[in-house]
Amino acid sequence: MKKYVYLISLFLISISIIDASNIGKRYPSEKKSWIDSESGYEITQWTNNSKNWHLYFNVESFIDNNHAIIFSERSGSKNLFILDLESGEMIQITDEENIDGHVWHVPSYNTIYYTLLDNTLKSLNTKTFEAKEINKFDVPIESFTISCDNNWFIFSSGGKKIDGAKTIGPFAIYKYGINSKEYIQVTPGYGFIISHLQANPINPNIVSFCWQHMIDREEGTQGMTPQRIWQVNIDESEVKPIALQETGLHRTHEFWFYDGSKIGYSARYTWGKNKGKQFIGFCNPDGSENIMLPAPVGPAHSQMYMDNIHWVSDLYDGSYLVLFTIKDNSMVKEERLFKHDSSWKGQPSHPHPHFSPDGKYILFGTDKSGNPQVYSVRINLK
Question: In Å, how far are 261, 264, 291, 332, 353 from 282, measured between CA atoms?
């Protein structure tokens, strides 16, 4: 019943939008499905026209079991759409000329936050498609997240830009009250890039972030970082490293488990006697009970399903999407789902796997057909 109410509301919204806007415009299904000859799983390609991709692996793409948020350039510029994972129909929900691609979704508040290239922050209601300007910031936004109580916009900034695009330090974390309009610097200025801000799913004061390494990014100091994962309490301005790294270990692509109980990551040794060894890892929010399980995943993007048992990664043994089963801190099963063959050229081409809330699908992307497109593999975990 809820599904039909949702579809009716989408229809009413679409016919009420003025003709000058693409908001509410519907696009017919482009989906095609087949059984993968190697894995035996059903694969569906949901998009085909233009460039299309879903949200970053650590940002929730799903609105509910059957509707996911994606980016598409089909209307000219990059904009946000809702993809129906039953009918395949797409509906446009923004009509902007200069979205910068950074978003954060707070499903419990039916809200997406996104930024424009001029550092304007906007909110978008995923049911009414109403967009509101929250604030225009006078500093460049490197990375941002929204607290789980929907009260704080937390972002990192290098303070200013030079040469039109390059952001320089020192980098600091700030918070801005979405309703209160308070503007507070949370950390001191640090001499490294602060990126990958992620709000804890259950504690509105806790935000993880990374000491971002620089490789093929821009001119400046290049190399790995001695400590990747950090955490800040935005209420107390307390900053601390999480899961201390030994020499030669390089972690990337950290993420929160759905219940906020663990931080997961990919890891590999890039130097020293263990050079070449690769792992998936996870630890408690304070860095304790750190577990690393051997797996050939490189710098994979990962996500743990809400059962805290099933873990998906997208860089297994080169270019496979893989499903791990983890019990009692041990790997009990590894299953290849699909050889996605992404070129890895640019974020839209990265698979960035997402579990649907009901465990029926893993949403992912690849540009194996030429342009980035949105796919899924049906897994039916329940």
Answer: 10, 4, 5, 16, 18
